[in-house]
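Ticket closed. Logging final result for Cadherin domain-containing protein.
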Amino acid sequence: AGQVVATLKASDPDTPGPLTYAVVSGDEGRFELDSATGVLRLRDSLDRETRDTYRLQIKASDGVQSAETIITIRVTDTNDNPPVFTEASYSFDVSENSSRGSRVGQVVAHDEDQGVNGLVTYTVISDWANDVFSLHPQTGVFTLTARLDYEEVQHYIFVVQAQDTGRPSLSSTLTVFFNVLDLNDNAPLFDPMSYSNEVFENVAVGTSVVSVTATDLDSGENGRLEYTIVSGDDEKVFDIEADNGTILTRRTLDR
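Final structure:
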């Protein structure tokens, strides 16, 4: 406020006396004009992002006659707006069999300033797993640069900065999450690989003989196990509980 915008001058060949100046319209309360000197000043601060042009109608009068003109004021940009991301945070799901070079996500920020003040570049400012994902500085696109394995790492978390190129530059940050989706890429493994046990021939039907155990590194339904007897029991002497691997006698044994 108070900054001089322009000094207006008018002349009157009929009257050598002083002229008075006045704003007729268009100032929106942002400007004040000294009626005696014609000095136009700011009354309030301007915001180019709200309005970038003002057209003021100015009148000069000698007390009897007057003339009017239009003054156009264009508001130039300053770097007063930081980049703003379109989301508070980003979360992307990525299959663990995604190939290297795959586009796996994109962050977007907008800057209301103009020119270099509004030009946004993106960088990862966290220092973990930068060899797994690559961020394009101009487009904000994340690309996969290494193999994923759900059984090793299920989640990746990055802090991304959007920065404009104004002077001084302004920036903002947010968190980006990558969730690795599990595939059924691991077979169940028995531990131990073989079992042995003895059982009396006079045991009751339904007696537990042995329990086998297997594990699967996959998760969810991919890691849920079901046990079945596939060979070696042609006479159907034994049953196995599908959910826990316990082998039971199905009928009376006869050695």
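Residues 1 and 44 are 5 Å apart (CA to CA). No further action required.
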